[in-house]
Structure prediction request, 673 residues.
Amino acid sequence: MPEMTYLEAIRAAMHDEMEIDERVFVMGEDVGRQGGAFGATKELQQRFGELRSIDTPVAESGIVGVAVGAAMAGQRPIAEMQFADFVSCAYDQLITCAAKMHYRIGWAVPLVVRCPNGGGVGGGPYHSENVEAWFHHHAGLKIVCPATATDAYGLLRSAIRDPNPVVFCEHKFLYRRVKQQVATGPRDGVLVPLGKADVVREGSDLSIITYASTVQLALAVADTLEQEDLSVEVIDLRTLVPFDRDAVLDSVRKTGKTLIVHEDNLTGGFGGEVAAVIAQDAFEYLDAPVRRVAALDTPIPFAPPLEREYLPLEEDILSAARDLAAY
Amino acid sequence: MSTPARNISAVPEPAPAPRISDEEALNLYYWMVLTRATEERALNLYRQGKLPGSYYTGRGQEAISVGMAAPLRRGADGDWLSPWIRDLGSYLVHGVPVWRMFAQFMGKAGSTTRGKDGNLHIGGYEWNIPCQVSHMADMIPLTVGAALAYKQRGEDRVAVTSFGDGATSRGDFHEGLNIAAVLEVPAVFVAENNRWAYTTPISKQTKVTDLYKKALGYGIPAIEVDGNDVLAVYSAMSEAVAHCRAGRGPRFIECKTYRMAGHAAHDKYESYMPMELLAEWSDKDPLKRLEQALREERTIDEAKLEGIRTKVKDEVHEAVERADDDGFADPSEAHLGVFAEADTDA
Ligand SMILES: Cc1ncc(C[n+]2csc(CCOP(=O)(O)OP(=O)(O)O)c2C)c(N)n1
Ligand SMILES: [Mg+2]
Prediction:
């Protein structure tokens, strides 16, 4: 098994699906010759030709709209947003056309929109956004947020095969920072199903429910707290839609204490939904109020000290977890 | 030495005088009469309070809706057609049965959306008609995408969409046309310039009131036709479709016409539309014009035309009865279909 980065895993997933399914193609700004701003589609054009790795004009709404039409006409498009932030320009196409077509006439829209998501890279207000919560309110879109290279690979392959529109939020801070041995290959690569959370660490005193970039931070916190004789369970949601309620509820019923963590800002973030589900369906099991750690409710500032202030850091998670454990 | 100025995309030569057989012309007549009769009947039902929501008619624009759909291939393996809300005729010509149109207006189970969407938000895989959304111009990029799929697979199919003059102000119109031109896909864009967008006249919509010129700006060959002459629309469309099938990239047709009533049945248009212009355009009614051409230029027997009108009357009558008899979908239907289980449940 080759060791590869999260970014290489994403490329491998597209490559492997393109090898076995000629309906699969990529499109977006600079994805062809250049292989995209981050190199996720590198050499796909050389391998599969200009009709399957398409450089488009700078027009996100048009790109996603074209992908919806191609998907309906039998192809399996993967549309790349150069940065997740720019999916705001394609918002209408996603919620108006992609999300509601199947509900209205039973015509599937098998589409993936890849969104290089998140902060921590000095991108400032327009190159750092976490966009997953923009979409989870709208019925008809699946939302995937991988935290590891293995999941990035396996979830992306599942997303490409899924008959529904999928917003694939790949965290660009993780692109080159996480590495893993990943089982790839057109036929032998390992898929990860959409809708199944991962219990990445078992524990009995406290549950941290998280996804994407903050999974690593939660694991580090769990290590630290182990020294303090606290046993922390870490749940990686992996996909927000479908949402694995059972995995969350099972964990909370076991530990009685929950900390929800995400890099996205607090208000209206997905954590609010998780907290509501726990409040309704695991109330009798709770030994403490549900707590959330998330980013500030501000735009994402540029300068490193300001960005650090904005982001939820390991120490924020650690102190919230300690408080909760002591409750 | 100076380089001579060159058009990036010349206006195509006007299509040669239409060589449309009498049989084809009569077929167009049938669809135009059916379209008019269906809309008149639906408008009556609306006024009797039998249709929920509002009602939009394409009266006066039947030459466009019928003329643009008639040259296309029908069926799931046929051409993609995404018509605008004025284009009831397009749905009929492209295969949607009349009774299902009425079921749609009534919100019945037999509607193509099982009551989940209304008015001309009609579609289905079996006809290769995607279900349009309310948002003007959104279907333009989708149509480009379908055309891209056909090009990628080397199929000689085309994708067609229509829209109003108002839609040409939206970004998706411009993004869609630009991408279509750059990717050279087999898409035909049909603009229906009826000079109004709700209460806004075209002069307040755009400084370039010849809409085909916008397409030329994107490098798409474009023409304007008399949108009240079904034979003209039909031949322009046939020519554009042939061009697309031959792999020569997108085409644009502007149909000049006039909106013959309010935006929708609830709209008090008398307060803002000049009545003289309506009267003038009423004389150019596309159905009257076709009848005249059939009688005078083609010397078709009045009895033949009468036969078509009678057949249509019966069809519409039966369609309304069938839709009336149809039930509403079970309320549980509201929960179903958010996600597809597989591609094939389409
Ligand atoms: C994006 C969007 N904004 C507003 C509306 C409301 N609306 C419905 S039809 C219409 C005017 C349409 O004008 P035009 O495109 O010229 O088509 P016509 O009605 O004349 O056929 C408007 C503003 C809409 N459907 N979509
Ligand atoms: Mg108009």
